[in-house]
Amino acid sequence: MEPFVIQRQGFELKISSIEEAAALEAIGILNSSELIAWAGHMLNNGQYTASIDTLDDTPETSPERAHRLFKAATAELGVGVRSLHDAAFTAARVIIQQIADEEIDTEAGCQFLCHNFSLNSSQVGAASKFSEELGMREFVFLEHEMCHARAALQHPVPYDPGPPEVIKQEILSEAQRWLNANT
After folding, report:
1. Which of the listed residues 1, 3, 145, 160 has the most CB atoms within 10 Å of its CB?
2. pLDDT tens for residues 85-142?
3. Which residues, 6+ apart, have CB-to-CB distance to 146 below 8 Å?
4. Does pLDDT of 18 surpass 80?
5. Mapped to the 3 state alphabet, what secondary structure does the chain carry?
């Protein structure tokens, strides 16, 4: 089956399986319009359940109903999220793997990861309580370094971490290290 693709923050995140979609939905990354698009994608790829059909046929459905229909569809397909911890781990793996494979922009991917796992903000998402446990603190440091590097390109700053290209390589190295430690 072709991956389902969502557009976010200047890059495309590829979702290759029903399990990945379920994990991303469970921690709040997929919104209702993306769930409706997912239903159409599934039908186009020969996956049919009554809930997928209903979700695809109701583009004006409320966000709550879209999420409820999505959960019913994945359950009908025999896929469910065992726990939020498992969902957070799966979602992190999907994003980090695509960063490591350079399928998505390294900098944008790192920002997306930090934002959705609330690693460096006051916003608390469903996955934020697992960020420490999943060993993702280095991504926050590297995302912060990238902000400094971008600022240093515009004007002198007290702390210059070096060129963005160097930090991108550090992000790629950290992504590979994380994957090696967590697979």
Report:
1. 145
2. 888 899 989 999 999 999 988 888 888 888 777 654 555 566 666 777 777 778 877 8
3. 107, 110, 111, 164, 167, 168, 171
4. yes
5. CCCEEEEECCEEEEECCHHHHHHHHHCCCCCHHHHHHHHHHHHHCCCCCHHHHHHHHCCCCCHHHHHHHHHHHHHHCCCCCCCHHHHHHHHHHHHHHHHHCCCCCHHHHHHHHHHHCCCCCCCCCCCHHHCCCCCCHHHHHHHHHHHHHHHHHHCCCCCCCCCHHHHHHHHHHHHHHHHHHCC
Task: Please state at what angle helix 32-44 crosses helix 63-76, rounded to 10 degrees.
Answer: 40
Integer Cα distance of 55 and 60 in angstroms = 10
- Residue spans of the domains in the chain: they are 4-76, 84-181
**What is the rounded average pLDDT for all residues in the chain?**
85
46: left (phi over 0), alpha (psi -120 to 50) or beta: left
Give residue 158's pLDDT: 72
13 near 98, Cβ under 8 Å? yes
Tens of pLDDT, residues 32-42: 999 999 999 99
